[in-house]
Amino acid sequence: MIAPPKKMRLAGLVALWIIALAFFAVRSSGFLSMANFSSILQFSTLLALVTFGQTLVILSGGGGVDLSVGGIVSLSGLSIAFGLKEGLDPYIASLGGIAFGGLLGLVNGLLVTKFRLLPLIATLGTFYAYNGLSVALTVGAPIAGLPTFFGTLGQGSVAGIPLHTVFIVLPVILILEFVLWQMPVGRWIYGIGGNERACRLVGLPVDLIRLGIYVHSGVMAALAGLVADSWLLSARPNIGENLELLSLTAALLGGTSIFGGTGGLAGSLVAVLFFTSFQSGLQMLNVNAIWQLGLVGFFLIFSVLVDRFIRGGEST
Amino acid sequence: MSGNPIRRLIGRREVSLALACLSAAGIFRGFSPYFLTATNLTTILQNSVELLLISLGISFILATAGIDIAVGGVLGISAIFIGWSVEAGWPLSTTVLLGPVAGTCLGMVSGFMIVVGKVPPIIATLGLFGVYRAAMFLLLGGSWISGLPNTLAPLVNSAIFGVPVVAVYVLAFYLVGWLILRWFPLGTAVLAVGGNERAAQLAGVAVGRSKFFVYGMTGFLVGFAALLYVARYRNVETSTGETVALDAIVAAVIGGSSVLGGQANLVGTMLGVVLVRLLQNGFVLAGVPSLWEQVITGSLLLLVLILDAAVKRSARLKPVSVL
Questions:
Q1: Phi and psi (nearest 5°) for B260?
Q2: Cα separation, B128 vs B119, whole angstroms
Q3: Distance CA A155, CA A38 (A)
């Protein structure tokens, strides 16, 4: 054993990120500018928030996966815009939207814990239900023209760093890391992912924790919806498109095992930054956006294959 | 088990599904007098053909406790190759072979990832779906293949002894599928892998080969469905096959396949496909905009799973009579 595989993996990912940065810096002169740095952060927030939720879902094991995150982003974004249009106070509208996202996550959680459906199939159902609802309710048209004061969170920045990075993404990851590493609940999440049966026998409220994790994923998606609304000053029914694929890929690329129990948020965050840098670089090189979808699909499979390779010796 | 024969009959998946189809038909008739006409029922069945073929493959995959999200991409790419071949005026025999061959190859790619790479099926096929969507876009170059000549029409329009040829395809494939499951060691192997992979392996079942088979076979069926798709619509768009994976999974699960593997009910799958298409058609006729289609299909999936879970639970809680 040279180094713990987990550390090696994270280091490998950071190296991959740096290689990508260097590549784009050489190929495109504007890439290493402050403006591009802020734009990378600006674009990474949505994916980062959704990926945090997704990571915890996968971490808690039991085949955990949340395919409905994109639909929740769209639906909660729409609900916030709807509230604003109805003249609600922006804070109340935002809180309402976040609560709504939590509710949509609760539906997932109940399907998984109460009805004992496989997360994959339960969230595939809600994926279509939520995405379909957001398109059907709006007939595909965005709710545009939100009041400009609502744009502060999504468009403002301090020293080139977007406000939502400072006031949402950073606090969220710090709190989550604290909970995961310092509080019993966080250790239990890893425990459930590692050996669910043992945790049940020890008397942990496994179902309740898992329910909470799905609600949390919904809340994270709703936060992403809030940021999107505030950034674009409109709510698009398809804003969450492909986020399930992206967040799943980012979480797995970041080193969280698809079987649960190992991994964490730091890797997910690096993976998200890697993706967004990649995206921005490809854009600067005028590469068609559809390539990104293909590359993401490739990375998804690649990261699991790498996992196999690294952990191959341990597991069997 | 309850001794009441009527209850047992209704408990059969096929019977409860047929009842669901009939009652749905009865309700939709109340909304639209057009629903129960021969023309509309024929339309529903015609619209079911491609999905019937794909769902047959998905039933086999679910039986091994796998899943395939990429079928839509396979359908699209196969359809592009077929479209090009028709455009180029290649002989009919080549075109007809091209679809299933392309589909089988792409199916084998999934199989390879899953068997050799040991990537969980959901991850492998979700990733491949992204790759295929991008590939479709690149192959099509952003435009559509449209206005193809009518050369493939005999594949879908002709009849054998008065039976529409598409019905013959469907019945033939399902018969073969049923025979494999029922009479061939391969079918038993597929079910064994889904029931308990490790036990199957220890018992000497060729686990990898069985999985390869189900993904390859699904690719073949999807390729054939692509052929029928091009023959019927004579165009290929970038969005071709986008939602077919959900429809197929929903149909198979409604039909009694378990996502946990180990069981397959081909008659159930057939009825499941008909129910899905019937509902989609009925809601449109009842005046619900087609935008709601995804919501309806997704909710249907969840509803059936919840009902299944409830039934299973009540069956478990019932006092077991020893005598």
A1: -80, -5
A2: 12
A3: 11
Secondary structure of residue B164 in the 3-state scheme: strand
Dihedral of CA A300/A301/A302/A305: which sign? Answer: positive
**Residue B321 lies inside a defined structural domain of this protein:** no
Q: Would B319 be classed as within a structural domain? A: no
Chains A and B: how many Cβ contacts under 8 Å? 133
Token pair of B231, please? 């023959």
- Distance in angstroms (rounded) separating the CA atoms of residues B69 and B276: 18
| Residue B320 is assigned to a structural domain of this protein | no
CATH number at residue B131: 1.10.3470
Domain parsing of chain A, residue ranges: 34-308
The DSSP letter of residue B159 is E
Distance from CA of A304 to the nearest CA of B (A): 6
A305 part of contact set with chain B, CB < 8 Å: yes
B45 is a domain residue? yes
- Tokens describing residue B46: 């015609």
Structure tokens at B156: 């879908």
pLDDT in tens for each of the 323 residues of chain B?
A: 455 777 666 678 888 889 989 999 989 988 888 888 888 898 899 889 999 999 999 999 999 999 999 999 999 999 999 999 998 888 888 999 999 999 999 999 999 999 998 888 988 998 999 899 889 988 888 778 888 888 888 888 888 887 888 999 999 999 999 999 999 999 999 999 998 999 999 999 999 999 999 999 999 999 999 999 999 988 888 778 878 888 899 999 999 888 888 888 999 999 999 999 999 899 988 888 888 888 998 999 999 888 888 877 776 655 444 44
Nearest to B214 by CA among B139, B115, B75: B115
- What lies within 8 Å, CB to CB, of A302 at 6+ separation is A253
Radius of gyration of chain A (CA): 19
Tokens of A52: 């945090």
**CATH number corresponding to A34-308:** 1.10.3470
Tell me the shortest Cα–Cα distance from B109 to chain A, in angstroms.
12
Query: Using CA atoms, how far apart are residues B245 and B132, in angstroms rounded to an integer?
Result: 13
Its domain, for residue B284, covers 12-314
- Measured distance CA(B226)–CA(B54) in Å, rounded: 10
The total number of structural domains that make up chain B:
1
Q: Where are the alpha helices (DSSP H) in B234-319?
A: 244-254, 266-285, 293-317
A296: which chain B residues are within 8 Å (Cβ-Cβ)?
127, 130
Exposed / middle / buried, residue A167 (Cβ in 10 Å: 0-12, 13-18, 19+): middle
Q: Which two tokens stand for residue A76?
A: 């909660």
- Among the partner residues A131, A294, A300, nearest to B123 by beta-carbon distance: A300
Angstroms from B309 CA to nearest CA on chain A = 6
User: Tell me, what amino acid is at A130?
Assistant: Y
